[in-house]
Hints:
This protein is an alpha+beta fold. The longest helix has 16 residues, at 83-98. The chain has twelve helices and 15 strands. The two termini are 23 Å apart. The protein has two domains: 2-242, no CATH class; 247-299, no CATH class. Strands 1, 4, 5, 6, 7, 10, 11, 12, 13 and 15 form a ten-stranded antiparallel β-sheet that branches. Strands 9-8-14 form a three-stranded antiparallel β-sheet. It has a two-stranded antiparallel ribbon with strand order 2-3.
Amino acid sequence: MIDWITSIIPCFHSSFISDGKILRIDSSGEIQWETNTFKSVVGSHDSSIRVRTEINSPGHFLRVDGNPVKFLQGHNLFGTDDLSGLNYGFLERLAEILELKPTESERMDWKTGNYKLGRVDCAVMFDVGSKANSLAWIRQAERLATMAHKGRGQLVKGCTLYFGQHSRRNTSKFYCKGQEFLDNGHPDILAIPKMVDYANRGLRYETAIRSKDLKKLNLALASDWSSEVSYSITMASLGRLHMSTPCVLDDELIEGLKPSLQAVYRLWKTGVDIRSMYPKTTFYRYRSQLMKDAGVDIALLQPSTEKKSNVIPLYRIIEAVVLCVLRLVLRSF
């Protein structure tokens, strides 16, 4: 499903739309730069979207940023992979709230997707059986998973695992949908047991594609998106995830490594985070050499030897299947 859209849409408006300005003024009192802030517009169930007049073309284009699914239906448990249809229905509602008067030509551009995109978030949800399974998978993935060009993930608030969180091109994350739904869901939706059960079974994977990658993928216009694009992008991104089982080398293989690699391996084996000990280039050099020579990935954290006990760890398989996808096509009648 499409979970977030930033778009620059044609829509003539005589009054400048913003919620004020942010200025930087130097010591002599001169304005060095200024930028207009977004105006927050509330939709269904108190969900909001951000809107402002596009600075480069005042009065002719709007920059719209937010989650159109939540804006229209109050939640994003499920939605649609029809980007143009979703955004068209949303823009019509936004124009009504803001009392905008787009021309027929501009409305046709909305309908056909003839406008630029600045960011699109695509998501898929996997059925892992329970909220406990979802959180358990995320905790293990923090320790055992790496993603190509992003390395190991960063766990935030105990239930969201980010890969490339601050990337200017794309960001991926896994999170426990049941926990997120409980924290942010609207009371009337939380009162529906089947909705809560649906959320609790879900492990959500999202990837946010920003303008640089949208241009690279030839997806910078809404019209470039078919109903299959969102799912294919999400699964291609997921394919770059690598889950490993930590391995232990025997003494003979260890002795065959270079002394510097032996030292790094022994530190890693005790549970030390090697990434925090060396400059980035040095860390990746050691990682590449150890993967090549010994099949060991030092980007994966090992359990600390300080926590040894006589308890034998047990592993269980968590099977993940894609939850039922509901395709919703929004049309204007």
